[in-house]
Design goal:
Number of helices: 5
InterPro entries: Claudin, Claudin_CS, PMP22/EMP/MP20/Claudin
GO molecular function, one term: structural molecule activity
CATH architecture: Up-down Bundle
CATH topology: Butyryl-CoA Dehydrogenase, subunit A, domain 3
Helix content: 55-70%
Subcellular location: Cell junction, Tight junction; Cell membrane
Mean pLDDT: 81
Low-confidence stretches: 191-199, 206-210
Largest sheet: 5 strands, antiparallel
Transmembrane segments: 82-102, 118-142, 162-189
Distance between the termini: 42 Å
Radius of gyration: 23 Å
Protein name: Claudin
């Protein structure tokens, strides 16, 4: 695959990952009521996210309420919030930086080496963004799993399990990591050849002294 096509594919994948991460951060479906067990004990389905909690009744009516206090939230929710915000900021800067560094754009064409370095920097930002999203979603999923399987007097069909936003977040992290990795492959070819020549010269010099 040509360098420009690889960069474009990486950029599109990373952009899709950033948009999916934004959707995951906003959706109130990080955990939802579990329907495991023999009988459903309530006609109301509960959904909770990083910013709000919702109750969906069997009639189709949905009521949502924002979390009232930041400091009263559990630690894993506050941590996941912070990681998602950092991820979105890194992804946003990655979008801007990558546009400047990609070969298919006209910005900085007079210096292709610097342009390639900028593309690599954008790829690194996307990789960091994907790692933050992955950490946030995995941390939240770990807490949901722990609360579901721990010994408790709460019936199993009244506990919480994974919501759809977690799967969206995992997909977003995968796309961001893939796209960022492809962009990181844009390292200037001249520098790669120079490094190979330097290593070959060192090996030749070492053989002469042997």
């Amino acid at each position: 695959m040509a360098g420009g096509a690889r960069e474009l594919a990486g950029y599109l994948a990373a952009l899709a990952g950033w948009m999916a991460a934004l959707a995951a951060a906003v959706l109130p479906h990080w955990r939802q009521s579990s329907y495991a067990g023999d009988a459903i004990i309530t006609a109301v389905g509960l959904h909770e996210g990083l910013w709000m909690s919702c109750a969906a009744q069997s009639t189709g009516q949905v009521q949502c309420r924002l979390h009232d206090s930041l400091l009263s939230l559990e630690v894993h929710i506050q941590t996941s919030r912070a990681l998602m915000v950092i991820s979105l900021l890194l992804g946003f800067f990655g979008i801007v930086v990558s546009v400047v560094g990609m070969k298919c754009t006209k910005v900085g064409e007079e210096d292709p080496v610097t342009k390639s370095r900028i593309a690599v920097a954008g790829g690194v930002l996307f990789v960091l963004s994907g790692l933050c999203t992955l950490a946030a979603v995995s941390l939240y999923a770990t807490q949901v799993t722990y609360e579901f399987f721990r010994e408790s007097t709460i019936p199993i069909n009244a506990r919480y399990e994974f919501g759809s936003a977690l799967f969206v977040g995992w997909g977003a992290a995968s796309l961001s990591l893939l796209g960022g990795s492809l962009l990181c492959c844009s390292w200037p070819a001249k520098e790669r050849r120079g490094q190979q020549y330097h290593r070959q010269a060192q090996l030749s010099t070492a053989r002469e002294y042997v």
